[in-house]
Amino acid sequence: MTAEATTSEIGDEGAVAVPAAVGKVVSPARLTWWKFRRHRLAVASLVFLIAAYLVTLFASFVSPSSPSTRSRYLYAPPQSVHLFDKDGTFRGPFVYGYRMSRDPKTMRLVYADDPSRIFPLALFVRGETHEVLGLFETDLHLFGAPGGYVFLAGTDAFGRDMLSRLLHGAQISLSVGMISVLLSLVLGLLIGGVSGLFGGRIDTVIQRIIEAIIAIPTIPLWLGLAAAVPRDWPPVYQYFAILLVLSLVSWTSTARVARGRFLALREQDFVTAARVYGAGWFRIIARHLVPNLMSYVIVTLTLAIPGIIIGETALSFLGVGLKPPTVSWGVLLQEAQKIQTITFYPWLWIGPAACVVSIVLAFNFLGDGARDAADPFSR
Amino acid sequence: MLAYLMHRSLQMVATVFIISVIAFLVIQLPPGDFVNSYLATLSGGDQITQDAVEALRAQFGLDDNLLVQYWRWISNLLMGNFGISFQYQRTVLDLLEERLPLTLAITIPTALFVYALAVPIGIYSAVRQYSVLDYTFTFVGFIGLAIPNFLMAILLIYVNSTYFGGNVAGLFSPEYELAPWSVGRVLDMLSNLSLAILIIGLGGTAATMRVMRGMLLDELSQAYVETARAKGLPEWKLILKYPVRVAISPVLSTIGFTLPHLVSGTEITATVLNLPTTGPLLLNAVRSQDMFLAASIIFILSVLTVIGTFLSDLLLVWADPRIRL
Predict the structure, then answer these.
(1) What is the ipTM of this complex?
(2) What is the C-alpha separation between A370 and A256, in angstroms, rounded?
(3) Domain segments of chain B: what residues?
(4) 10 Å Cβ neighbour count for A134?
(5) Strands B90-91 and A25-26
(6) Fewer beta carbons within 10 Å, N or C terminal of chain B?
(7) CATH top class, domain B101-324
(8) Domain spans of chain A?
């Protein structure tokens, strides 16, 4: 690592001023955290993302039913939660049952609230058995309507609960971003490192390849690569194949950053010092260089995750990514390929769309804050 | 200038070569070769003798090694022979001639639209930093970046059909669909295209606007700006004449990143809005593993992107002599 910062240095820079730390040696990591903390939107986004990932981890517990359970209520709109009934009496949180009828002209199902049927909502209700984290089975759910039904995000063409499908879809959509980004981290560090450390002809060739990949419009390239995934593969294989396709494009930004940092760092005095002490290149890379460029790489990765999530969503939406019965936000959005669905059953696409946009927005804010904080000694 | 031109052209040739290798990989990647896909489209369940399969393989040279196959593919490509689409039973060139013009007719105006909008907004945001409008633009920009093109298109279809009762999908409105060319039909097409341009341009504008703002903010804090101000130059004249001119060229040079994004956006938006660009064609090709068509589209789109970047780079060098190193 670089020399540790002391408080006197902080005072000189005037970047961060935290009185509690006077007289102590402050690590760069702590400085980074202080700087990051000042970016309120980024902190809020971080909290939101942690909450989202936690909910996703326990999706089967949070959702009222399994993503494949069908009901007799097809294309039912979202129920709204009420506290007072039609007469103004306080009832606690509850939903109204549906009153189903058929539009005589269009033959579509039309739903209205049925004031005579009130289903009170309760926490920790018993329902379908499900597996939590693949560890144990339970029939406990976070909430539900005992003796009735609850569809807070509406239902789809098969009467399946959209909320449960959204939560289970998050498991795929959010993990795609994470794992794919880890893959591009490994690829990017390796290739960018080789490019930056060895330089010369290897560097030129790698740089040309990266430029070429950047020049190719991503969606068409992803489409072409996704075509190679055999359709009869089991869902798990398809999932990893799509992961691979997405990271094959996104490693380039990491590689560029890694190369730039390697080029700058290898001329630094502490690297020369380490060499003079007789450290091997491998040790220098692992102990001195990689920790120094990690902050930059983390920022690039944070900013790469939204692109990957959008990529998966777009591919699945177009029908060349993941396919049902796998549930992801993109798979859910496939419904929005039909104009009728877009206009008549908007909850089928507004839900997944809102999920994608809010997660992407949060990652963008987080990346923005992380970029400012990545260099704790700058202003 | 000539040296730069030579250097840059060589670089472009290298990039195009690598792109061609990647496009060739796209053809090779799907399991089974295209004789299988060809037979699948032809036979419809009929038995085809092993001899016939072998004959077809030999005819297309599929038993040669990859290098030979690549060489044959690329030399044909360079002579304008893009191969045959099995699905459409037409030459790929034919299909491209039909679809490519509309892709360009959307992407090029979008690029102009992005810079025409993003640069003034970026300038305003930098000069009036932390003003209400600056925050508004920043906010709208972040939202614009977070909404993928196809979701934006879906949203517009929804808003339009729910509140205005109109139909935005397709190149023409129903009443002009089969009508002969007329002024009304052209206007109708333009209004549908402008919607696509708006959708695709939003994300690009948001990104470019941020870059412009950042670059100009860096310049505005320089000492020469202070000097000019001290000498009594009118504020807007000063800003437009010096810092903006410095800040704008790195912004315009981001076109190398922007253009692929715009092409990408055009293709997916066109698929949602059902516009006859190469986008829906590519999607169909990919779905039915019509790989010659798919690879040709990817190759052509990428090469056009590279050429677009090259041309804009040349313009930039011509306008800003400092780049010519």
Answers:
(1) 0.83
(2) 18
(3) 101-324
(4) 6
(5) unpaired
(6) C
(7) mainly alpha
(8) 79-151, 165-374
